[in-house]
Amino acid sequence: MIDLLTAPFVEFAFMRRALAGCVALSVGAAPVGVFLTLRRMSLMSEAMSHAILPGAAIGFLWAGLSLPAMTLGGLVAGLAVAMLSGFVARSTVLREDASLAAFYLISLAGGVLLISARGSSIDLLHILFGTVLALDDDALVLLGGIATVTLAGLAVAYRPLVMECVDPLFLRSVGRASGPVHYAFLALVVLNLVGGFAALGTLLAVGLMLLPAITARFWALDLSGLLPASVILALMASVAGLLVSYYASLPTGPAIVLAAGALYLASMLLGPRGGLVWRLMPARHLEA
Amino acid sequence: MERLTTSAPGGTLAFRGLTLGYARHPAVHHLDGAIPPGSLTAVVGPNGAGKSTLLKGIMGEIRPLEGEVVRAGLARHDIAYLPQAAEIDRAFPIGVFDLVAMGLWRRVGPWRSLKRHRDAVEAALAAVGLTGFERRPIGTLSGGQLRRALFARVLLQDARVILLDEPFAAIDARTTDELLALVHGWHGEGRTVVAVLHDLDQVARHFPETLLLAREAVAWGATAGVLTPDNLRRARRLCEAWDEEAPVCRVPPARPGPDAHPQSHDHGSPDPAPHDHGSHGRHSHGHAA
């Protein structure tokens, strides 16, 4: 039984690489997802994942299926959209969701135009759904680097980031940290989506960022519990998804995200913090 | 009055021809005057009189349409602000202790440990009667309890100027008395306190200075002289609706410094950034003070 769980990783280097990549992604992206959901910006990452498409496409048209080129392109496009929409939200009447929607749609349309002008549909699938089983050294270094930068960034900006989430007006009133923290957080979101798209593809990177973060709400009450819970859930989904895809010969990216989805459904039903089952059998109220 | 640490003559909040507003419509119109350090001032006036706008202007949350707020010797962290409707996300999973401890930002910044300040946070919570609430998520607090927590946060900010926007709205009488005691404590320590209030009896009993605002300063000075029936009637008359057809205000903008030269303002040429005028023709420009 244990063999069944470990054998694929022991026997095959490509499975070990895939595991290492997913571990790096889980450690970085899941905590970012927790802050995204707490800021009610869950769907923002979905939009961002589309926004990085034209950059990745330009990288692809420039250098073919080259990870550094596509990553750099995606990073530039994603950061541009994040910073522009953040700037518009902070200095005009538009709220963040509306300004982001405007910029990501422009970006997405540009990306589709670029790809259809030059590439084939197979190339597009590659960008959208990634190749977790073909992670080379460059990709692993990239994923590890992104996880490191993300954790360091969250550690450095943790306190002002929490304050920016809870009470942005207060943070503005006591110092100048509000703007930089906002932009730094958006940059971390883009960084993790771009890192994820190499492994899982743009669409599924969002899954590993958000699903564990959302699921964690059923297991923990505050940030000190939510952050580790989200990482653990992401790791569980990664391992389960890799194993399922190995034994059932299924595509890896969707398998990982579906595993995260299964964890979400189970937690929604059974999670000790507000799971459905506990709502159906409420305990008697207390005296005070 | 200078009982605080700085010896600089600063600490005064001065308004010079201050016009604040939204979409060129003034909510506070050509306000001149100063709030001296250590004073305890109530800002009263009808709805839409520009009271909250004035506090936002002092904080720098909104930029003046014209004129300026001079914060002599006051840094950003010297001014604490308790907004009327805080932008607090009450669904965020954070405890009362952590919310209140935000008031320590100036001292601990993003990285320094809170450990050495734990007693200060506990003391602030005790001062507002929230001992034992440390670990309660903020989402489970009642409106009044959250207000108390925000007072505790202001307490920890240790600011020289404290701006309170309707601090006692929807607060029960006993809590109001306790919070008023805190306000008097701040006054006793030589801090400047400015509070937007609606309860005129409360103002008369607790606040030595009053600014009666109705877009313009109707009266400003010792409370007893300001809250006269005549002044209050005049304040009510100043209309609060904004007029879409309001003409552009032609009052010459105040020049920085005491030696302004209003004559040099050419009325024939268009103003660089003129604002709409909601109330011209309906009241005189005379300031009774």
Automatic annotation (TrEMBL), chain A:
It is a multi-pass membrane protein. It holds the Pfam family ABC-3. This is Zinc ABC transporter permease. The keyword Cell inner membrane does not apply. One of its GO terms (cellular component) is ATP-binding cassette (ABC) transporter complex. InterPro entries: ABC_BtuC-like, ABC_TroCD. It is found in: Cell membrane; Membrane. The lineage of its organism: Bacteria, Pseudomonadati, Pseudomonadota, Alphaproteobacteria, Hyphomicrobiales. One of its GO terms (biological process) is response to zinc ion. Its main location: membrane. The chain crosses the membrane at residues 18-38, 101-119, 139-162, 183-214, 226-248, 255-272. Keywords: Membrane, Transmembrane, Transmembrane helix, Transport. Belongs to the ABC-3 integral membrane protein family. Coiled coil: none annotated. It comes from Methylobacterium indicum.
